[in-house]
Design brief:
Layout lengths: L38 H14 L12 H4 L8 H9 L9 H14 L3 H25 L5 H10 L4 H5 L4 H23 L2 H17 L6 H13 L4 H4 L3 H22 L11 H20 L22 H15 L3 H14 L25 H16 L4 H23 L5 H11 L4 H13 L3 H14 L4 H13 L3 H14 L4 H13 L3 H14 L4 H13 L3 H14 L4 H13 L3 H14 L4 H13 L3 H14 L4 H13 L3 H14 L4 H13 L3 H14 L4 H13 L3 H17 L1
Length: about 725
């Protein structure tokens, strides 16, 4: 019996870099060795990112950056605990992000270059991880896709804006989790699953949009293996639960702490939201293909289902997905599903705060960009296959150089808040938020006159907006336009009667207009609305002190220091009222507390010196007043007070020098003129003494002490009748009190 020769099996290796849209069977279920890291690609990515984003490293704080760079009350270890366990302690409940900011603040404080450098390095790391992920998936053009992501100008908003470290950090964790999970899927080592799960949870705790990763992995696994076996699905079920929980927490906190802010309401029907979603997808895809007219705040669209063309984007997206499925373009379909699925939280089906200003923002698509760029790079690699290598390299080099140049230029917009808002208005002139933010930024910098037209335009675009009314009133007040400021604040309390700060600011402008009683009524209204408003209590104390109601003023200042014990002005106000009431030891204690909180406070040192003088502590008084003058040499009140202390200490020449300095600084200061006259009388310089005392009487005719001082100088000069007349005038003034 003839034996049969065994048939030899030929083993064909799968193509190393299959195109994403290949129709043939994907790589086998049993993987080969994982691709090695290519150090030179990582090095080039980091160098390219740092070069392209160099202008951003010098950028300042923008919009809500102060809410992300760790606030003073959160900078301690207790504050770190609040970041994790107190919802509302930070702008959004992203505890890992804010822990990163907490650490960064420990390293370099408020120096913005450190935050910008971290953002750039995180972006470069994300690009490197994308390269590794695409190589593991055997996608052609992995290096090109990573470079496109590294240099595409659409990413500038996420990298150049400190607040968007939530994007760069969460993307690094997202891609690292994806890589770790694919390693687990290949070898089923549970240590890798634990690592992947930890990275995924960390990503969700950094930004909840990363909750889309389990669905993205299912799409990738379906593309790679042609079918989804249960053993590949069930490990992702805990991830789906964790991601869903993170999304629900973010939505709840968004509703509780964020969405109450001003802005147009987000009220759309399901049909409108569907049409909006199609338009958003097409918008983002268009910006990737042609990144022109990128801006910080895009115009807010009006969604109207009765307008025929508004159906086209949604229909185009649906048609594209149908064609890809029908033509069995699994790679293209997978990339499209990844892009759309990652964008899903920002497509309009859920309300997020920025929708009140615009339905799109460059940073919304940061996490979705890699899938689209991977498809583009794979397609370009397939088109260039078979052509000379230099042609592909030249084309890729030109493309990347162009994108890098655009990124460099785009970074210039993010130099500071004023530059950013001006650039936004140049491309979106009807952006009320940019006008409002530019106006408030200019006002905060002391440029009130420059802020007024921007805040006025913001009110034209958004009539009756309480924030714009409030800031416009403050700018008008700062510019000295009291009547206009009063009108704006009166409008504010009509539009938003429940705003305590509106009543407070109206009180401030009424007090500046010389209407203290009306101001007091507004401060009291503010305290009725918010009894815990320390500013309202302080302002009410100041107004009561202005009209001589010192007992009530002291009570309000005491309320202010109870509500805000770390407020130096409140302690200063309390000390002033107690000093006016003659309660000098208590006043000295209040001033000392103010100085403990703010050692550089010349006004407090001046008043404390006066109290110490009246208590007979002349050496302490001289020290306090000397310190006040070291801090503020052109302080006439402190020079006058120091002069009286020196005179009481029998240091008459030094006292005269201080009084002379006071009247040089403030010639219309009657107390200094009177004190100088007295000192000159004691020094025997009678003509000068008489002249200064007469000036004091002229400046303040009801100043009894000046009449007595003039009488003494005239008597010593032998002008007895005139001296007697001045003394009688002084006694009449005293009796009239």
């Amino acid at each position: 019996m003839r034996g049969r020769c065994p048939r030899r099996r030929v083993v064909r290796a799968p193509p190393e870099f299959p195109a994403m849209d290949a129709r043939r069977t994907p790589p086998a279920d049993v993987p080969g060795p994982p691709p090695r890291t290519v150090p030179w690609v990582w090095a080039l990515l980091f160098a390219a990112v740092l070069a392209a984003y160099f202008p951003a490293l010098r950028g300042g704080l923008l919009w809500d950056d102060p809410a992300h760079v760790t606030r003073p009350e959160l900078r301690s270890l207790l504050g770190l605990g609040r970041i994790w366990f107190e919802p509302g302690a930070t702008q959004q409940y992203y505890p890992l992000l804010h822990s990163a900011f907490w650490i960064e603040h420990r390293l370099w404080g408020g120096a913005t270059p450190g935050y910008h450098l971290v953002n750039a390095l995180l972006h470069a790391t994300a690009a490197g991880l994308l390269f590794q992920l695409l190589r593991r998936l055997a996608v052609r053009g992995a290096a090109l896709a990573a470079a496109l992501f590294a240099l595409h100008p659409v990413c500038v908003e996420s990298v150049a804006w400190i607040s968007e470290q939530k994007n760069t950090l969460s993307t690094v964790l997202y891609l690292a989790a994806a890589l770790a999970y694919l390693r687990f899927d290949a070898r089923r080592r549970w240590q890798q699953y634990a690592l992947a799960s930890a990275l995924f949870v960390a990503a969700v705790l950094t930004k909840s949009v990363t909750a889309t990763l389990p669905a993205a992995l299912l799409v990738i696994l379906r593309w790679r293996h042609d079918r989804l076996a249960w053993r590949r699905v069930w490990p992702l079920l805990p991830w789906l639960a964790a991601g869903g929980t993170g999304g629900l927490v973010t939505a709840a906190i968004e509703r509780s702490y964020v969405l109450g802010s001003p802005g147009p309401p987000f009220t759309l029907s399901l049909l409108q939201r569907t049409l909006l979603a199609g338009r958003v997808i097409c918008f983002y895809a268009g910006k990737l293909v042609w990144p022109a007219d990128l801006m910080f705040i895009y115009p807010r669209w009006h969604v109207d289902a009765s307008v025929a063309w508004q159906w086209l984007p949604a229909l185009a997206v649906a048609a594209l997905l149908a064609v890809l499925w029908w033509r069995r373009q699994r790679g293209g379909l997978a990339a499209a599903l990844l892009f759309i699925g990652t964008l899903f939280p920002a497509l309009g089906f859920f309300e997020v705060y920025p929708f009140r200003f615009s339905y799109v923002a460059d940073h919304f698509q940061y996490l979705a960009i890699p899938s689209a760029l991977a498809l583009a790079a794979a397609g370009l690699a397939r088109v260039l296959a078979g052509r000379p290598p230099w042609a592909g390299r030249a084309l890729a080099g030109l493309l990347l150089a162009g994108l890098g140049t655009l990124t460099w230029r785009q970074c210039g917009m993010y130099r500071d808040a004023v530059t950013l808002y001006r650039a936004t208005l140049a491309r979106n002139p009807d952006c009320w938020l940019a006008e409002y933010n530019l106006g408030t930024t200019l006002r905060a910098a002391g440029h009130d006159a420059e802020a007024i037209p921007h805040l006025t335009h913001a009110l034209l675009l958004q009539p009756g907006d309480p924030g714009a009314l409030n800031n416009l009133g403050l700018a008008l007040l700062g510019a000295g336009r009291i009547n206009d400021a009063t009108a704006r604040f009166e409008q504010l309390v009509r539009v938003a009667p429940g705003r305590a700060d509106g009543h407070c600011n109206l009180g401030n402008v009424l007090r500046a207009a010389g209407r203290p009683d009306a101001a007091i009524a507004q401060y009291e209204a503010a305290l009725q609305l918010d009894p815990a408003d320390a500013d309202a209590a302080y302002d009410l104390g100041v107004a009561l002190a202005d009209v001589g109601r010192q007992d009530e003023a002291a009570a309000r200042f005491q309320q202010a220091v109870r509500l805000e014990p770390a407020s130096p002005p409140a302690w200063y106000g309390l000390g002033s009222s107690l000093q006016a009431l003659g309660r000098l030891p208590a006043a000295a204690d209040a001033y000392a507390q103010a100085l403990r909180l703010q050692p550089v406070y010349p006004e407090v040192l001046n008043n404390l010196g006066g109290v110490q003088r009246d208590l007979g502590r002349l050496s302490d008084a001289a020290a306090s007043l000397t310190r006040a003058l070291q801090l503020r040499p052109d302080y006439p009140e402190a020079r006058n007070n120091l002069g009286t202390v020196l005179a009481m200490s029998d240091r008459l020449p030094e006292a005269i020098a201080q009084f002379e300095a006071a009247v040089r600084l403030a010639p219309e200061f009657p107390e200094a003129q009177c004190n100088l006259g007295r000192a000159l009388t004691l020094a025997g310089r009678l003509p000068e003494a008489i002249a200064h005392c007469e000036t004091a009487v002229r400046l303040r005719p009801d100043f009894a002490a000046a009449h007595f001082a003039l009488a003494a100088a005239l008597a010593r000069a032998g002008r007895t009748a005139e001296a007697r007349a001045q003394e009688e005038a002084a006694r009449r003034l005293q009796a009239a009190r």
